[in-house]
Write a structure and sequence with these properties.
The complex is a heterodimer. Chain A is of the alpha/beta class. Chain A contains 10 helices and 11 strands. In chain A, strands 7-8-9-3-10-11 form a 6-stranded mixed sheet, sandwiched between helices. In chain A, strands 1, 2, 4, 5 and 6 form a 5-stranded antiparallel sheet that branches. The longest helix of chain B has 18 residues. The chains are: A alpha/beta, B alpha/beta. At the A-B interface, helix 3, helix 7, helix 8, helix 9 and helix 10 of A face helix 6, helix 7, helix 8 and helix 9 of B. Bound molecules: adenosine-5'-triphosphate (ATP) (2 copies) and magnesium ion (MG) (2 copies). Chain A: It is found in: Cell inner membrane. Chain A: Belongs to the ABC transporter superfamily.
Chain lengths: 278, 253
């Protein structure tokens, strides 16, 4: 088997001042593949993603292993981390508009990502940024380039984040709900772009999503998280054959086109789901 | 008490001079009392803008918006807040970073001089499936979905008659989504709430809405009954394409 891009073993994360760990012993490896992470709201998915980029000030992170390629993320200095973050490992954050600077034009912020990582003129960076906004199917990229974050729609914000990530040309992408605000037609086009990166450039992709249809059809493998732990790992095409009661409950709670109008099935969360497996 | 909503020729332009963009050329639709009306369509087509016009978050639009026959422009602020509330698409932006959940929820109660504050806050936070201890948290200490549930609790706490919901559940896992959708259905049955709901998930439309409008580039292409979804009964080419893609998205295995 080829060497994994990312190796995570027994990752534990505690927020400063919190009484319990938000992430309790998560382990997985990632190759050149699309790995989905699904799970309960608040189960620690974004926390895992941010820990990989060491974007958790004040939190305590421990692990038996946390390796990205040849790098040990646990001991890397902040200076070395700066070279990795954004450039080699990039995260599409869950709150796109919040992660943009509110008082700068969105296009300039996209162009800046390119300037930060590659040597080129301002005009070249602008052209790159415009081309990328077009690639993510933004209508009228010239107009959107000059807009401020509060002037763009939710789905445009998500696509701006994706454009920034694409320009940095990373080896590992952590996408936290990257397409939840996109209509299905545009969503499929954007997923196609991400797919191309895995297929043609051999990047590793972690896709955090609540969209079970997306994970089932687009990912290779899926981790299911509940209360800070991975409770089940499946091949994506076997999602419907999941065995953990939490995963089964998720599948049952999904509304379906043509389904009835009876109240949706809700989960009866069990205390034993919190316990570590023997 | 149920209210109706009528929008007639609502139009909005942002910017001035050559840079001006007409985001909504002319939008008209009506929603019956106690109806759940869906707004779906292309990302960037103006769905959130329609909700912002109805809620008067922006007032630079022209045309008419009537709530129960009354022009929304003429409603005094206090009455407007008791009549309609909005849940925003990006909950992080809509919650003040330095306000605890308790402050977020108690402020509207204080402004509207409602009693039993502690009791109402506890009920609102439990209704959206969060523990009461979360009242003392700040937005940055919450996950994306937990923030969204706080935003929903804030909208519900004043018991408005009309709720404008901008993708209320797209940040929630489907089990929490089921709880929220069931709660919204129950409130509609018990208290006759009227909803206008933006979503990209046609399964949610089919489950919740009576009718829905499909938007493209600032215009409503077509208003359809929910029954049009399973067999794709749309006639406008974009609406047909969108429903077709959604059917495929759900069934491709
Ligand atoms: N700064 C913080 N301080 C204390 N607790 C925090 C902080 N940030 C997050 N948490 C808690 O850690 C847990 C995990 O949060 P995380 O954001 O990783 O969840 P998530 O799985 O991404 O959820 P969602 O699907 O709702 O986005 C949550 O219970 C949250 O309340
Ligand atoms: N304050 C503003 N100034 C300039 N343009 C604006 C402003 N607010 C919105 N727009 C533009 O209006 C259009 C519609 O935006 P809106 O947020 O209503 O879209 P949406 O249908 O909600 O999209 P999404 O599904 O992606 O959230 C976009 O092109 C946006 O750039
Ligand atoms: Mg999250
Ligand atoms: Mg919107």
């Amino acid at each position: 088997m080829e060497k994994p891009i990312l190796e995570v073993d027994n990752l534990r994360i505690r927020y400063g001042g919190a009484s319990a760990e938000a992430v309790r012993g998560v382990s997985f490896t990632l190759g050149r593949e699309r790995l989905g992470i699904v799970g309960e709201s608040g189960s620690g998915k974004s926390t895992v993603g941010r820990a990989l980029l060491r974007l958790l000030p004040g939190a305590t992170i421990t692990a038996d292993k946390l390796r990205f390629g040849e790098l040990d993320l646990l001991t890397l200095s902040e200076k070395e981390m700066l070279k990795v973050r954004g450039r080699r490992m990039s995260m599409i954050l869950q709150d796109p508009k919040f992660s943009l600077n509110p008082i700068r034009r969105v296009g300039d912020q996209v162009a800046e990502t390119y300037l930060r990582h590659f040597r080129c003129s301002k005009a070249e960076a602008r052209d790159k940024a415009l081309a990328m906004l077009e690639a993510v199917k933004i209508r009228d990229p010239e107009r959107v380039y000059d807009q401020y974050p509060h002037e763009i729609s939710g789905g445009m914000g998500q696509r701006v984040m994706i454009a920034m990530m694409l320009l940095a040309d990373p080896d590992l992408v952590i996408a936290d709900e990257p397409t939840s605000a996109l209509d299905v037609t545009v969503r499929l086009q954007v997923l196609n772009i991400l797919d191309g990166l895995v297929r043609d450039r051999g990047i590793g992709l972690i896709m955090i999503s609540h969209d079970l249809n997306l994970v089932r059809n687009f990912c290779d493998r899926v981790l299911i998280m509940y209360a800070g732990r991975v409770v089940e790992t499946l091949a994506a095409r076997d999602l419907d054959r999941a065995e953990h009661p939490y995963t089964r409950g998720l599948l049952a709670a999904q509304p379906r086109i043509g389904g009835g109008r009876a109240p949706l099935a809700v989960l009866d969360r069990q205390l034993e789901w919190l316990e570590e497996k023997a | 008490m149920s209210v109706s909503v009528e929008t007639r020729d609502v139009s909005i332009t942002f910017g001035a001079g050559p840079a001006a963009v007409r985001v909504l050329p002319s939008v008209s639709f009506s929603v019956g009392p106690g109806e759940c009306f869906g707004l779906v369509g292309e990302s960037g087509s103006g769905k959130s803008t329609v909700l912002r016009c109805i809620s008067m978050l922006t007032d630079i639009w022209t045309g008419d918006i009537l709530i129960d026959g009354k022009p929304v422009r003429e409603m005094p602020l206090i009455e407007r807040c008791r009549t309609l509330q909005m849940v925003f698409q990006d909950p992080y932006g809509s919650l003040h970073p330095r306000q605890s959940v308790r402050t977020v929820l108690s402020e509207p109660l204080a402004i509207h001089r409602l009693g039993d504050r502690e009791e109402r806050m506890r009920k609102a936070i439990t209704d959206v499936g969060l523990p009461v201890s979360f009242l003392d948290r700040f937005p940055h200490q919450l996950s994306g979905g937990q923030r969204q549930r706080v935003a929903i609790a804030r909208a519900l706490i004043l018991e408005p008659s009309l709720l404008l919901l901008d993708e209320p559940t797209s940040a929630l896992d489907v089990s929490v989504q089921a709880e929220i959708l069931n709660l919204l259905q129950r409130l509609r049955e018990e208290r006759g709430f009227t909803y206008i709901m933006v979503t990209h998930d046609l399964a949610v439309v089919d489950h919740m809405c009576d009718r829905f409008a499909v938007m493209l580039h600032g215009e409503i292409t077509e208003v359809l009954p929910r029954e049009a979804i399973p067999a794709n009964g749309a006639t406008h080419p974009y609406a047909r394409e969108l429903i077709g893609a959604s059917l495929e998205y759900e069934s491709a295995h």
